[in-house]
């Protein structure tokens, strides 16, 4: 039987995410040990605008722990869980590639961590092994558990139709650098991305955000964990990877803010802190978008293929009741061959929570002949 209650499935996802946050917090504060477990990744053609890209021990362990834990609870999902990393990390001392296998006992995991940390045996490494191996010490807050009560008991989900994308750390560079958590006073948006190091659960602010976007079940807990600034009358456009010429002729009631971390920016749309998030380069992947996409859809927003939307608007802008939903980003384009991250790059996109904001700003993009790369 692959059908389970939606509220029960969501509970297990949040437990997995909280465990991931515990791992990320513990690894981040292992002081000098943390710095030895950072590996620079080769930038592909879509990411040459970045200074560098990294993966950390947290990225790899979190991904493998989520795969293990959810696969044990729901075996039908075992081959439906995908992540950005290849499940390995190179040792800085020898350049040896170590496969991160978390399927064994706590002692097996401790032995693996000792090898990664050059055979050190410290209290912090032993504690990490305990967190990774345990399946019983993760407790959600009462507020989080109560938020699931809004989902009726008669709503189920067929797990055989479900796929899971994992982005262990949103804003890896900010996570590594330990930036200051700069808050924009007008919107409450975290400009350097730090508090949302994980899409569902903030690694540092420890807030849980969830949303569901099934046809018969749009629910979220956003009002429970976030109080919106209702006094902010200025519309906000967020950007990261973008050609700045796109901003010519945008009406003056739009405020433009550069913000770090894709998941952080998308969550700001879901929380209605910002109206539009614009990406004009193919610089994000399925795992960057999908969790926040569900949250955005739960408030009747959407993430759309930017190029197709602009073409469609240009051809049909004089018509009423334009159907933008046909251009939403989808995530089930699984390739049969060996997993290659570049195969899952998302096209340039635009995200919003209110369709009228989208319509209002599209005219500026058409006039500017926005450059989409």
Automatic annotation (TrEMBL):
Named cofactor requirement(s): Mg(2+)
GO molecular function: inositol-1,4-bisphosphate 1-phosphatase activity; metal ion binding
Keywords: Lithium, Magnesium, Metal-binding
EC number in record: 3.1.3.57
Entry binding sites for Mg(2+): 84, 167, 170, 288
PANTHER family listed in its UniProt record: 3'(2'),5'-BISPHOSPHATE NUCLEOTIDASE 1, INOSITOL POLYPHOSPHATE 1-PHOSPHATASE
Reactions catalysed, as given in the entry: 1D-myo-inositol 1,3,4-trisphosphate + H2O = 1D-myo-inositol 3,4-bisphosphate + phosphate; 1D-myo-inositol 1,4-bisphosphate + H2O = 1D-myo-inositol 4-phosphate + phosphate
Lineage of the organism: Eukaryota, Metazoa, Spiralia, Gnathifera, Rotifera
Record family assignment: Belongs to the inositol monophosphatase superfamily.
Gene3D superfamilies in the record: Fructose-1,6-Bisphosphatase, subunit A, domain 1 (3.30.540.10), Inositol Polyphosphate 1-phosphatase, domain 1 (4.10.460.10)
Pfam families: Inositol_P (PF00459)
Name of the featured protein: inositol-1,4-bisphosphate 1-phosphatase
Sections of the chain in a coiled coil: none
């Amino acid at each position: 039987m692959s059908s389970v209650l939606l509220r029960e499935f969501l509970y297990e996802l949040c437990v997995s995410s909280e465990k991931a946050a515990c791992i990320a917090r513990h690894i981040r504060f292992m002081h000098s040990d943390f710095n030895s477990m950072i590996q620079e990744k080769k930038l592909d053609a879509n990411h040459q605008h970045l200074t560098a890209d990294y993966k950390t021990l947290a990225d790899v362990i979190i991904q493998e722990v989520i795969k293990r834990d959810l696969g044990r609870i729901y075996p039908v999902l075992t081959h439906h869980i995908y992540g950005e990393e290849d499940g390995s990390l190179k040792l800085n001392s020898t350049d040896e590639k170590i496969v991160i296998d978390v399927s064994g006992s706590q002692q097996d995991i401790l032995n693996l961590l000792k090898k990664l940390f050059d055979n050190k045996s410290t209290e912090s490494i032993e504690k990490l092994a305990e967190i990774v191996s345990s399946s019983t010490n993760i407790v959600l807050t009462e507020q989080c558990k109560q938020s699931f009560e809004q989902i009726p008991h008669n709503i189920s989900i067929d797990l055989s139709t479900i796929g899971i994308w994992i982005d262990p750390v949103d804003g890896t560079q900010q996570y590594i650098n330990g930036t200051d958590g700069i808050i924009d006073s007008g919107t409450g948006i975290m400009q350097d991305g730090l508090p949302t190091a994980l899409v569902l659960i903030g690694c540092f602010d420890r807030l849980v955000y969830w949303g569901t976007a099934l046809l018969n079940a749009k629910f979220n807990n956003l009002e429970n964990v976030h109080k919106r600034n209702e006094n902010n009358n200025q519309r906000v456009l967020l950007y990261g990877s973008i050609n700045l010429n796109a901003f010519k002729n945008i009406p003056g009631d739009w405020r433009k803010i550069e913000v770090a971390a894709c998941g952080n920016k998308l969550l700001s749309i879901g929380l209605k802190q910002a109206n539009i998030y614009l990406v004009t380069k193919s610089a994000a992947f399925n795992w960057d978008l999908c969790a926040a996409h569900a949250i955005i859809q739960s408030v009747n927003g959407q993430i759309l293929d930017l190029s197709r939307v602009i073409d469609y608007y240009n051809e049909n802008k004089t018509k009423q009741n334009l159907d933008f939903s046909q251009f939403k980003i989808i995530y089930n384009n699984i390739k049969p061959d060996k997993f290659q991250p570049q195969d899952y790059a998302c096209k340039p996109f635009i995200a919003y929570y209110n369709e009228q904001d989208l319509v209002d700003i599209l005219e500026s993009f058409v006039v500017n002949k926005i450059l989409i790369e």
